[in-house]
Amino acid sequence: MYIPKRYGEQKKETCPFCGKDARSFNRQQIAVCKDHTEELLQEMKCVCGRFLERKSGKYGVFFICSSCGTMNLRKVLELNTVAKTKGGSQIAESHTKGPLNQTISSQKPKEIIIRSDDPDWF
Hints:
Elements: E1 24-25, E2 31-32, E3 53-57, E4 60-65, E5 69-72, H1 73-79
Antiparallel strand pairs: 1-2, 3-4, 4-5
């Protein structure tokens, strides 16, 4: 649900490493707190298993997957665990477990039947 910004409010950035208010940027142009200005965000993986390409745009940092498309920083951080690295590039661990502790690739697609008189699909 979209909640509009009220008068006097501004966007609040949080540090991906610790969750504090982000006041500065690191070398990758990601908003971080003053304690993590030297930290670098490692390579991130998509849900499909491919590596994401980091881009910076008008609304901040976002990632592009070659098969899934664009994802914002919040979604990518939910999928990957962030480890502190100084200068090195480590690969992030990707969560491949679903809600019932099953791997995503082993889940069978659920069949949905839509009728013409169903009010939920209009």
